[in-house]
Write a structure and sequence with these properties.
By secondary structure, the chain is of the alpha+beta class. The chain has helices at about 10-15, 15-25, 30-45, 135-140; strands at about 65-80, 85-90, 115-125, 145-150, 150-160, 200-205, 210-215, 235-250. Mean pLDDT is about 80; it is low at about 5-15 and about 55-60.
């Protein structure tokens, strides 16, 4: 059996190095272990759609894809003292008209512009810090969400199961109003779609429709009025899809 302490560091330090060690400890030759490592890397590249598309190279070079961490976000609102809707749909109204880049970075209705595609690794709901606790409570109690890609639901559940991992924390003495957000301001406090043999999350293909629906069986009524104490601000919340964006290099 090979002495694994003498294996050169490039073999054990790169992707699949532990697999090489395990194979050698199991009795395989170094040559066979390296062959297994190569097969594993090839399989991961194929699964993550990296193989055969030039994505291992420098993304600045011509004809290469540009892969980077990214957020898709959208903002919806309902005025104070207005009736809550039975359904709120994120990612259905792009920039232009009623929305600027402050509200959304989507430029097409429910689609990414060609030739982009996106691997969503997390879905986050963020209630703006100016919302009242009573209105946040009403949303959390009465609504659930569905994440649609094409004609299928890929994630669903009550809103509190999709915390934002961001936002303010603390207490305000103004009118005795306390500050409450969905989850805690910690980047780890989010749902993760990557699990088991799916390391890429939920894949949104080029030209594929997607949206996040916030639904209720019946509206809970109106948001806190502006004449209340403290004054209401209505519903102000974001949906964020965190993940990996693939786009062409310009």
């Amino acid at each position: 059996m090979k002495n694994i302490s003498r294996i050169e560091s490039p073999v054990v330090d790169n992707m699949g190095g532990d697999a090489v060690r395990d194979a050698i400890l199991a009795g395989y030759s170094l040559k066979s272990a390296r062959a297994q490592q190569k097969e594993m890397i090839t399989g991961v590249e194929r699964m993550m759609r990296l193989s055969g598309r030039g994505r291992q190279g420098n993304p600045i070079a011509p004809n290469k894809a540009d892969i980077l961490p990214w957020y898709l976000y959208d903002f919806l609102t309902t005025a104070q003292n207005a009736a809550a809707l039975v359904e709120y749909d994120f990612f259905t109204v792009p920039q232009g008209g009623t929305k600027t880049k402050v509200q959304t970075n989507l430029t097409q209705v429910s689609q990414l512009p060609a030739p982009q595609h996106f691997n969503a690794t997390s879905l986050q709901i963020y209630f703006a810090s100016n919302m009242l606790k009573a209105d946040i409570d009403s949303m959390l109690i009465n609504y659930y969400l569905e994440f649609w890609v094409g004609d299928k639901i890929y994630a669903e559940g009550p809103l509190f199961k999709y915390p934002s991992g961001a936002g303010l924390a603390g207490v305000s003495q103004q009118s005795g109003q306390q500050v409450f957000t969905n989850g805690i301001p910690n980047c780890m406090a989010v749902v993760d779609f990557r699990m088991g043999d799916n390391p890429i999350g939920i894949h949104i293909l080029q030209g594929q429709n997607f949206k996040v629906k916030i639904l209720s069986s019946a509206s809970f009524g109106s948001f806190v009025a502006s004449t209340a104490e403290p004054a209401g601000t209505g519903l102000n919340f974001y949906c964020i899809l965190e993940g990996i964006l693939s786009r062409g290099v310009q």
